[in-house]
Amino acid sequence: MSLRRLRLGTAAAGLAALTLALAACGSSADTAAAPAPATGSSVKVVASTNVYAAIAQAVGGDNVTVSSIIDDPSADPHSHEATPAEAATVAGAQIVVLNGGGYDDFMTGLVSSAGGDRTVIDAVAVSGLEDTSATEPAGDAHGDAHGEHGDAHGDAHGDAHAGHDHGSLNEHVWYSLPAVKKLAGQIALDLRVTDAANAAEYSANADAFIARIDGLQAKVDAIKAAHPGTRVAVTEPVPGYLLSDAGLTNATPEEFARAVETDTDPPAAVLQQTLALFTTDPVRVLVLNGQTQTPTTDQVRQAATTAGVPVVEVTETLPAGVTDYVTWMDGQIDALATALDRT
C-alpha cells in the first residue's frame, strides 16, 4: 500500500478544477433541476463513503438506489479529488449522506457545484458530538429526528463520550454506535419525506437496523465490564469513540495520533513516549488503522509485535467484499474482544 496522504489542500485544488470543468460542460447551479419526490421509483441516495452507503441501504431497503463516491478500501476521503462524473452522480441524487466535520470536504463541494435542491444529511451534525446549535435551528426536521431513533446517545452509552476529551472534534463518528443509531433515524425520516408511500417500510427497516446496532452495543458493554480502564494504544484517533464506549483507556500521546492522521512526523520525544508503551508496563492492545502505512506506524507495529502485544486492525471504509455495516463493525469488535481476552 502506498504511503499516505495528500489531504485537503489537494482536494481543494481538485474541486476548483472540477467547477471549471462543469461550467464548460454546461452543468451549473443555474440549470440544475431540483429532484422531485419519489413516485414509485427508487429514491436515489449518494453517500461519501461505502460506510454511509451501507447504512443508507439498510434503512432504505429495496426502495432506494444507493451509490458511494469512495468504495475503494485503499482510498482516503481526506485527500479525495472530485471528478465531473462524481458531480453528475451527486446532481442526480435526492438524498446525500456525508460525514462532515472536515472529513469529506470534497462532498460538500460536490453538493455545492451540483446546484438544485436535495436533502443533505451530515453525520457529525446528526450525531450530537459537535454543538450545531449555531447553524441548525432547534426543533426543525433534523432536530426532531434526533429524538426519534437516537435517544441512546443521551443514555449511559452516550455519556461515555462526555468524559473523553479529544482536544478537538474526532470526526470519525461512524465508530460511535449511538451516533450511527441517530443517523439511521435521520435517514428514515428524510426517506419518509421524500417517498411517503413507503414510509412505514423505512421506519421498520430503521428499527431492524437499530436493533442490530443494539446487539453490537451489548458486545461493547461486555468489553467494558470485563476490561474496565484497560490501557490500549492507537495509531490514529479513528476508533476513538468505540474504545471510549468500551471503557478502555487510550494511553497514546495525542500529539502522536494527530501527527499520523495529518501525515506529519511526530517529534522524536513523542515517538519515544509511544514506543515506551510497549516496554514499560505495556498496553494490552495496539489498535492500528489498517489503511495507513508509514514508516512511523510500521515502527509502532513492530514494537507491539516484539513485546507480544496483540495488534487489532480497523479501517475507515468497508473492506473489499463487505457491504454490511453491522457485519463489518461486528468483526472489528470481536477482534478487539479476542485480543483483550488473550492478554
From TrEMBL:
According to the UniProt entry, the coiled-coil residues are none
**What does the entry give for GO biological process?**
metal ion transport
- Tagged with keyword Transport: yes
Cell wall biogenesis/degradation in keyword set: no
Q: Which UniProt keywords apply?
A: Metal-binding, Signal, Transport
Localized where?
Cell envelope
| Cleaved signal peptide residues | 1-23
Instruction: Provide ranges: composition bias, Basic and acidic residues.
Output: 139-165
Q: Which Pfam families match?
A: ZnuA
Q: Where is this region: Disordered?
A: 131-165
Which GO terms of the cellular component aspect does the record hold?
A: cell envelope
Record GO terms (molecular function) = metal ion binding
Q: What is its main location?
A: other
In terms of PANTHER family, this protein maps to: HIGH-AFFINITY ZINC UPTAKE SYSTEM PROTEIN ZNUA-RELATED, METAL-BINDING PROTEIN HI_0362-RELATED
Report the protein name in the record: Zinc ABC transporter solute-binding protein
Source organism of this protein record = Pseudonocardia bannensis
